[in-house]
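Renewal narrative, Specific Aim 1. Our central claim is that a sequence can be written position by position from structural information alone. The example that follows is taken directly from our test logs and has not been curated for this report. It begins with the structure tokens describing the chain, in the order in which they were read.
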């Protein structure tokens, strides 16, 4: 198993780890990871690792049998099993993912419909909704999401058991992405606190600490993706 450092501190940009194994495909399995592995519509992180005698660029990270494997950007000598490595995160790209991911949670607040798909990038993202027709007030979505951002709401995590999730399936907004369950407990991302809470849903990804860090966003084109589906794009501002 790999310790998920990114989960408890998504702002961590450097950390040490021990190489546990090499995968047949050339991945480097580590004991702890600041690199988020591809999943839930969020891309794996990139960066590099240093060790005594070498440096290797990391293109992405993947989940491998309960652990995380760092995927080299090129075929070069890898650190040996047992070696201690220093991980370095490509921070600007990760922070972009954090901002977009939180923005998409806010998008699901202002459009309270089931989510049928999604994708996160460093500058933009999108959600697909079970939306037969675009409502007449869609032009106000951009103003509404930026009002939520401006409230500077805290973004925190909480945990419930798998059984609690089964008893509260209304927490699950996504129809296409399975909540991160199966290990006895489920991570929830909460936006706002107490009476000021506006969202609570299962999520394994990385987020900013407060909505104000998202910055201004714009709502882009709305695409027709089928009789019951509409795709809504979000773009980060400067």
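The sequence written for that structure reads:
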């Amino acid at each position: 198993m790999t310790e998920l450092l990114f989960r408890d501190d998504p702002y961590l940009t450097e950390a040490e780890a021990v190489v546990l194994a090499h995968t047949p495909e050339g991945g480097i399995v580590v004991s702890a990871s600041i690199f988020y592995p591809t999943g839930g519509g969020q891309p794996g992180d990139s960066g590099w690792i240093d060790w005594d005698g070498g440096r290797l660029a990391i293109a992405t990270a993947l989940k491998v049998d309960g652990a995380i494997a760092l995927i080299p950007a090129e075929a070069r000598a890898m650190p040996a099993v047992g070696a201690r490595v220093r991980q370095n995160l490509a921070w600007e790209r990760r922070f972009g993912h954090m901002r977009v991911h939180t923005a998409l949670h806010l998008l699901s607040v202002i459009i309270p419909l089931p989510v049928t798909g999604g994708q996160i990038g460093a500058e933009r993202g999108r959600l697909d909704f079970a939306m037969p027709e675009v409502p007449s007030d869609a032009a106000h979505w951009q103003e509404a999401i930026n009002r939520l951002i401006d409230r500077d709401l805290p973004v925190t995590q909480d945990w419930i058991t798998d059984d609690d999730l089964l008893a509260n399936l209304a927490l699950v907004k996504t129809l296409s992405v399975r909540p991160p369950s199966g290990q006895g407990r489920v991570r929830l991302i909460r936006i706002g606190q107490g009476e000021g809470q506006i969202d609570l849903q299962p999520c394994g990804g990385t987020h900013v600490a407060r909505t104000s860090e998202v910055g201004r966003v714009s709502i882009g084109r709305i695409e027709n993706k089928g009789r019951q589906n509409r795709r809504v794009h979000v773009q980060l501002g400067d």
